[in-house]
Amino acid sequence: MRSADGRRALLQFPEACGADTTAKYVSLHCADNYWTSIDMPTALHAQTLLTLTYDGQVLPPKYGFPMKLRMPSKLGYKNPKHIVAISVTNKYPWLLGKPGLQLVRWS
Questions:
Q1: pLDDT on residue 106
Q2: Three-state SS across 46-104?
Q3: Could you give the 3-state DSSP secondary structure of residue 12?
Q4: What is the CA angle 57-60-61, rounded to 5?
Q5: N or C: which end of the chain has fewer CB within 10 A?
């Protein structure tokens, strides 16, 4: 699903590159060393979009070049900009690369 205004549904990318769409998480890596993750059902939602253009032109840096994520279905949630890599994993991405780190749950 590509719209005329340069947005693509995120669900197209895992399918196009042969990624495992049954994985639990999608991790988004940004040029400014920021990264975040979303769960796969959110990534596969039709309203989760990767924005590639602004006003018919390549997305300018101040708006998130080379691409940014928009999730209208998640009000108040982060919308990362300057995305340079997307990865798919079954492990919670925050714990990847952090040996011995334990997740603490507050109740």
A1: 45
A2: CCCEEECEECCEECCHHHCCCCEEECCCCCCCCCCCCEEEEEEECCCHHHCCCCCCCCC
A3: helix
A4: 165
A5: C
pLDDT confidence bin for 28, thresholds 50/70/90:
confident
The pLDDT mean for the chain works out to 79
- Residue 4 has what DSSP assignment? T
Query: What pLDDT score does 2 carry?
Result: 45
Rounded CA-CA distance 48/35 in Å is 17
Distance CA 51, CA 103 (A): 33
Q: In what order do the strands lie in the sheet with 35-39?
A: 35-39, 25-30, 83-89
